[in-house]
Specification:
Elements (H helix, E strand, L loop, with lengths): L3 E6 L3 E7 L6 E8 L3 H15 L3 E6 L9 H11 L6 E6 L3 H11 L8 H19 L1
Parallel strand pairs: 1-4, 4-5
Antiparallel strand pairs: 1-2, 2-3
Helix pairs in contact: 3-4
């Protein structure tokens, strides 16, 4: 199996997670500032080169009722900046941020001071969901 990258693309930051080549271990890598976007894309591409990644899973934030909103369109537009160099997959990430917050609270993390950890944990959840579905 090839290594995969998971991205939680937000308006301020992009959470990055990396899966191992067996699809068993998923590690949070970092949160990248979304602006300027060209630097964010360059940083993602550098990480892909470092880890020999050709496939990226991007969370698609549908509304709770399943509707496709502006944030989901924004994620698709961001994905176009990575194509055709990388194969892009989308994963429903409807509750990933909530799940990430709950998981981090259980660990005793102060979320007010560590917002980027939510993005990283969300990227891990997105990637894990995708791998589990496959």
């Amino acid at each position: 199996m090839e290594r995969l990258m998971g991205l939680d693309v937000g308006t301020k930051r992009i959470g990055v997670a990396i899966g191992d080549d067996m699809g068993i271990v998923i590690s949070g890598k970092e949160a990248i500032s979304r602006k300027p976007e060209n630097l964010a894309v360059a940083k993602i591409k550098n990480i892909c080169t470092e880890y020999n990644i050709k496939k990226i899973v991007i969370g698609l934030p549908y509304h709770a009722n399943g509707d496709f909103g502006e944030q989901a369109k924004d994620c698709q537009n961001f994905a176009k900046l990575l194509e055709p160099e990388y194969k892009i997959f989308f994963e429903d990430e409807r509750y990933s941020s909530f799940e990430a917050e709950e998981h981090l609270k259980e660990k005793g993390v102060n979320l007010r001071k560590n917002k980027e950890l939510i993005d990283i944990e969300s990227a891990c959840i997105i990637l894990k969901q995708f791998i589990n579905r496959k």
